[in-house]
Amino acid sequence: MNVVQFFSKSKNALDLPQCPTDWRKHLSNFTSCTIIVHGFIYKSPEHAFQGLKTRLCSTATEEYSIKFEGNSMTPQQAKYAGGKGAYKKNNIVLDLEKWDAVRVDIMEEIIIARIKSDSLFQHILKQTKQKNMLLLHFERSGKNSFWGGSYKMGVIRGHNILGKIMMKLRE
């Protein structure tokens, strides 16, 4: 199996039939594409992920949650706004036990919504399946990575949950 690492700044490599040369970058959750999850409209999977996470915070205001929907924030800004530092700054408390229990299901819903609305993403997933490619969301934290991981000397380090969700859904 051919391991293919991807993230928002992936360089061009490995040709796939009828796909742009930067197809690995397109697998990233930072890719702009309108998706609808739980009736909310988001401009990227990252916006959806962070927006839905805030809806599980009892201390987050509706106004804070809404800011992730169809606005001018970049995916990187959405990631920051849904992170620990921004939560602390805005006095938002995330129930980690509750979040940990649902985060994988939420990500799967987001990827399903993306498959339905993003035909290029759908095509890339089909092509990677045909080429028997293992999708690995690259993260520098290696073995401690939850959503991704790294690949060195034939060994995958990290849980690669995002890659596993994509491979499951491309079936």
Strand tally, please? 6
Question: What string gives the helices and strands in order?
Answer: EHEEHHHHHHEEEH
CATH architecture of the largest domain: Orthogonal Bundle
The shape is globular
Question: What does the radius of gyration come to?
Answer: 16 Å
Share of β-strand residues: 5-15%
* Corresponding CATH superfamily of the largest domain: YbiA-like
Q: What's the level 1 CATH class of the largest domain? A: Mainly Alpha
**Total count of helical runs of at least 4 residues:** 8
Task: Please give the order of strands in the largest beta sheet.
Answer: 1-4
| Total number of domains | 2
Mean pLDDT equals 89
Q: And the CATH topology of the largest domain?
A: Tetracycline Repressor, domain 2
Spatial separation of the terminal alpha carbons: 16 Å
Q: Unreliable runs, pLDDT <50, ≥5 residues?
A: none
Structural class: alpha+beta
The largest sheet is: 2 strands, parallel
Helix content: 40-55%
Question: How would you describe the overall organization of this protein?
Answer:
The longest helix is centred in the middle third of the chain and has 22 residues, at 96-117. This protein is an alpha+beta fold and 171 residues long. It is globular, with a radius of gyration of 16 Å. The chain is 44% helix and 13% strand. The protein has a two-stranded parallel sheet with strand order 1-4. The chain has a two-stranded antiparallel ribbon with strand order 2-3. α6 (96-117) packs parallel to α8 (161-169). The protein folds into 2 domains: 1-28 and 119-171, no CATH class; 32-117, YbiA-like (Tetracycline Repressor, domain 2).
